[in-house]
Amino acid sequence: MKHVKTMNTSMLKNTMAKGGCGECQTSCQSACKTSCTVANQACENR
Amino acid sequence: MIHKFSMNGVNVVIDVFSGAVHVADDIMYDIVDAYESGNRDDIHKAFDGKYQPKELDETMDELDSLRAEDMLYSKDIYENVLDFIDAREPVVKALCLHIAHDCNLKCKYCFAEEGEYHGHRALMSSEVGRAAIDFLIKNSGKRRNLEVDFFGGEPLMNFDVVKDIVEYGRQQEKIYDKNFRFTITTNGVLLNDDILEYINKNMHNVVISLDGRKEINDMMRPRAGGQGSYDLIVPKFQKLAESRNQTDYYIRGTFTRHNLDFSKDVLHMADLGFKQISVEPVVGSDDTDYAIREEDIPAVCKEYEKLAAELYERHKKGGKEDFNFFHFNIDLKGGPCVVKRLVGCGSGTEYLSVTPEGKLYPCHQFVGLEGFEMGSVFDGLKNFELRDKFSKCNVYAKEECGKCWARFYCSGGCAANAYQLEGDILKPYKIGCELQRKRVECAIMIKAKEFQEAD
After folding, report:
1. Whole-angstrom Cα distance, residue B374 to residue B348?
2. I need a surface site. Which of B49, B65, B134, B161 has the fewest CB within 10 A?
């Protein structure tokens, strides 16, 4: 496409089917434990 | 729902519910929100004179094709995921062990009241630590990966107990087919070669604390006698970072309204040779002199932009000056599943804190707060009402998150900050939200610039 380029094709909805196993790292969201976002976490089930 | 922003010469359009992230030219960026209705006549009228009709049609063709692929203007389909979350067996998979309610620094912003946590000075015994391991295994159901964080106060003030708990955990994980990941957070004052060697052998991750430039660090992180901590800890931290091959650690700092130019502190740590850096805004109420106030938000956001632009340049150049800033890390192609994104940290449910006496709290920030005690490692969980309240604390339960484009990146923020500053675990801390949104934009900007370059 000329006016837009998509950076990612892996869609959030595709994670509904197999998600929720809970094996991933706990993501503390307070400022004292250095894990303020979950978006950079790795999935342990992929 | 879409969100668009322009930063450092790149236009980004995020489709919130699909998670698709697009880099747009100016015309697409201009019309993308107005075209959600799909009405071409409206767009031609609104942008008449600014763009040629042919150009507008061509751009709208592209937007239509993204819409058809469900990568733009997609709908929220995740609320039913909550039923799945509710149906899950409640398990505990991570514990924060308060090894020492005591500290050898007197950090001015300490939420733990310089280690005492609204109580008195205390050290955890091996008996409590071992009971915590037993409690975790017993309550972990089928989860295999279990986390134990040694926290304080300052955990090195009670390091023999840390070692005993690790040894016990390693024995028990074999028996019960679990995999313990131990982590530790330290201010470095008592760090020596023996402790360093032990940490490198046994700890999955280490968080070390430094606020950046000497004058900034020493102002907020003095030692018990009032002298600064920088000169004592920096050489030890440099050694630790190198001995871990510059991975699996974070050097983390806190910025306050006394150093709103905190990008200098981040770059100072990078210049000291640290490659894994995290610096976060202090959380505090307006009655302190150091808290970030609403009026500081524009300055902080500008500083984040400045830091992101510099980090992008350093990534591009590579080599000695490059580093990783934790809060600009983002995985757009993978990352956690939507369930994880809706529930966040799991405090009060999957994640609990243990006091030196063995009492359970929803997380380290709630320790000692009235009404938040949940049971003990000896008697198990008792306060199921409180656990239910925390288990229902997710993005859909928070009115503010319902309006926010960043909800799947942030997961609803910190429950403790919400409670401390807004009085309710379901009301996200407003200043924290503003800054979180900015950090996500900065993270995506860096990715978008790199994507443009590779294209």
Report:
1. 8
2. B49
CB of B144 within 8 A of CB of B91?
A: no
Nearest CA in chain A to B256: A31
The CA distance from B413 to B434, in Å, is 11
**Are B19 and A8 inside 8 Å of each other by CB?**
yes
ipTM: 0.90
Test the B interface: residue of A2, A10, A12 with most B CBs within 10 Å: A12
CB contacts < 8 Å between A and B, how many?
216
Which positions 28-87 of B are in contact with A (Cβ < 8 Å)?
Answer: 28, 58-59, 62-63, 65-66, 70-71, 77-78, 81, 84-85
Residue A35, pLDDT above cutoff 70: no
A17 shares contact with chain B (CB less than 8 Å): no
Among B338, B344, B447, beta carbon nearest to A7: B447
Place of tokens 């009235």: B370
Please judge whether B280 and A34 are an interchain contact, meaning their C-beta atoms are less than 8 angstroms apart.
yes
Distance CA B325, CA B38 (A): 40
Domain with CATH 3.20.20.70 in chain B: 90-338
A37 touches B at CB < 8 Å: yes
Q: What CA–CA distance (Å, rounded) separates B205 from B110?
A: 22
CATH number of B90-338: 3.20.20.70
Cα separation, B85 vs B71, whole angstroms: 26
Residues whose CB is less than 8 angstroms from the CB of residue B153 and which lie 6 or more positions away in sequence, other chains included: B98, B99, B100, B101, B102, B103, B112, B115, B116, B117
Q: Indicate whether this model's pTM tops 0.90.
A: yes
Chain B: residue whose CA lies nearest to A26 = B345
B253 lies within 8 A of chain A by CB: no
Q: Which residue of A has its CA nearest to B57?
A: A3
Reported as a single tens digit per residue, the pLDDT across B3-60 is 999 999 999 999 999 999 999 999 999 999 999 999 999 999 999 999 999 999 999 9
